[in-house]
Amino acid sequence: MDGNGFFIEQKKLLSRRFLVLGVFLCLVLCPHASSLNDEGRALMAIKGSFSNVVNILSDWGDVHNEDFCSWRGVWCDNLTMSVASLNLSNLNLGGEISPAIGDLRNLQSLDLQGNKLSGQIPDEIGNCGSLFHLDLSDNLLYGDIPYSISKLKELEYLNLKNNQLIGPIPSTLTQIPNLKTIDLARNQLSGEIPRLIYWNEVLQYL
């Protein structure tokens, strides 16, 4: 093989190696990009379930990257760039809480208090396994307290006061090991407070 032939073969080999490297990087990075896209779509679905959003969530646009981390009320983890906190409190928002909230799997804090949100608390909120702060107080939410809240094992703060919630207090709330604060006042709940809640050594406010 002459010099030119050897050079061509080496160039082909190098090109194949770059192709393999590109495929590998895509396999590693594409799921992360996909998750960012999923969270962006989830946020847009959440916005779509609200009313009175004009001039309030005007910077929430349909993007396909981590730009949503700069949207009003959205805070992202600096390392994973996934949504860690959503604070839309006291914005006079109407409408409902979208089931898409459950697609924010890394959400740690959700604060929607002081709005005019109605409808039921979606069961999908139980998919937010990292949630430790949940404040839906001072809204117009109705229906039962979903049992799925009991799946939030990291939850420390739960405030659902001053809504129109009905039914019994789920006894499964006692299965949340780190729950320190729970406020269910000024609702239309029935039945007794589960006795095991009183035995919770972590609970500081009821």
Automatic annotation (TrEMBL):
Against InterPro entries, the record matches this protein to: Leu-rich_rpt (IPR001611), LRR_dom_sf (IPR032675), LRR_N_plant-typ (IPR013210), RLP23-like (IPR046956)
Q: What residue stretches are annotated with the Leucine-rich repeat-containing N-terminal plant-type domain?
A: 36-77
State the GO CC annotations: membrane
Ordered alphabetically, the record's keywords are:
Glycoprotein, Leucine-rich repeat, Membrane, Receptor, Repeat, Signal, Transmembrane, Transmembrane helix
Membrane topology, from the record: Single-pass type I membrane protein
* Classification lineage: Eukaryota, Viridiplantae, Streptophyta, Embryophyta, Tracheophyta
Does the keyword section mention Signal? yes
Q: Which organism is it from?
A: Linum tenue
Q: What is this protein called?
A: Leucine-rich repeat-containing N-terminal plant-type domain-containing protein
Localization terms from the record: Membrane
